[in-house]
Amino acid sequence: MSSFFTYKTHYPLSYTAETPNRPTISTLPPTQPATPPQASTGEVALPANALSIPDILAWHSIPQDLINAMSGSSLAAGLERMIDFAPFPIRPGVPMALGGASGSGKSLTLAKLAARYARQARQSGGRIRRPLVLACDSTPGSYIKLASILRGCDIDLMKAYGGMNPHLIDGHDRIILVDLPGLCVYSPTAMTEMKEVVERTQASLSLVIPAGMDPEESTDIAAAFHQCGAKSMIASRMEQSGRIGSVITAAACGLALTYGSYSGSINEGFTQLTPTILARRLLVLPG
Ligand SMILES: Nc1nc2c(ncn2[C@@H]2O[C@H](COP(=O)(O)OP(=O)(O)O)[C@@H](O)[C@H]2O)c(=O)[nH]1
Ligand SMILES: [Mg+2]
């Protein structure tokens, strides 16, 4: 696994997006090649016979230095070397706040998690309590939107604008998810406000990064969250974009890659990412 500092040392932000012979969408068809792949893919089928794996990674706008660092026996092995793949680090009694840019998928991802834990609680026959969701985004309309996404889920939803001291919450033995406002990491004020909410809630912090974002921007965002104490990330909109380099560069900053979100529905398209699943997604465009 790499850390943000290793990544920054070896892969500075100043990489050029203009990779030589950069493939275009028309050179990366989502169909099976007529001839075998040019490189080992770790049991993953390569969709484009005309392109090497480094070419495809460049198509995803992954920096050349990171591509070089991933090269070796197979793409899955290269990903495993550069990225920490881990279960989502949540436990009862410790609130988990989901942060990221506005529109990145924080609320939908939170709802997917809440729906899972609500299902577990229901199936436990009363042994596990239903999850609690703290709505910390006071942007007009966001509470109503969150409540409507969560409608039908067996959860408790509580407004906690500005954060909330967890001692005031009946939550020591239940999963607590925190919906944060969207923020711009380049704004020191916004970052300070987010840190205050997270500290007041004594929450852990996880980042939601959408596929399709500019990989340099996602590196900046992941680095800023890493410095704020985030240890993990979730990749959203994995089925909505071709290029997913933003997910790779963010994770290579030292955030453990947990779930990938593949659908706009709260009850489907939410998968624990593994090197093989990610390798396949890099090589095969969404169908
Ligand atoms: N298809 C699809 N839509 C997504 C996914 N994640 C988020 N969205 C949509 O993206 C939009 C913004 O998501 P939202 O959770 O409100 O973002 P937030 O501003 O970060 O809370 C909503 O319309 C979501 O339904 C995903 O993985 N797949
Ligand atoms: Mg939201």
Explain briefly what this protein structure is.
The protein has 287 residues and is of the alpha/beta class.
Outline the secondary-structure elements.
Elements: H1 4-10, H2 53-59, H3 64-70, H4 75-82, E1 96-99, H5 106-123, E2 132-135, H6 142-150, E3 156-159, E4 176-179, H7 188-200, E5 204-210, H8 215-227, E6 232-236, H9 245-251, E7 256-261, E8 270-272, H10 275-283
Parallel strand pairs: 1-4, 1-5, 2-3, 2-4, 5-6, 6-7
Antiparallel strand pairs: 7-8
Helix pairs in contact: 4-10, 8-9
Guanosine-5'-diphosphate binds next to helix 5.
Pfam families: SRP54
Keywords: GTP-binding, Nucleotide-binding
Biased composition (Polar residues): 18-28
Looking at this protein, list some descriptive labels.
disordered N terminus; globular; alpha/beta; single chain; 34% helix; 2 domains; 10 helices; 287 residues; binds magnesium ion; 8-stranded mixed β-sheet; binds guanosine-5'-diphosphate; Rossmann fold
List segments where confidence is low: pLDDT < 50 over at least 5 consecutive residues: 1-41
CATH superfamily of the largest domain: P-loop containing nucleotide triphosphate hydrolases
- Count structural domains: 2
The average pLDDT value, as a whole number, equals 86
Tally of helical segments: 10
* Arrangement of strands in the largest sheet: 3-2-4-1-5-6-7-8
List each distinct ligand once.
guanosine-5'-diphosphate, magnesium ion
- Distance from N terminus to C terminus (CA atoms, Å) equals 30 Å
Q: Which architecture of the largest domain does the CATH hierarchy give at level 2?
A: 3-Layer(aba) Sandwich
SSE pattern, N- to C-terminal: HHHHEHEHEEHEHEHEEH
CATH class of the largest domain: Alpha Beta
Structural class: alpha/beta
> Which percent bin holds the helix content?
25-40%
Overall radius of gyration: 20 Å
Principal-axis shape equals: globular
CATH topology of the largest domain: Rossmann fold
Number of strands: 8
Summarize the biggest pleated sheet: 8 strands, mixed
What proportion strand?
A: 5-15%
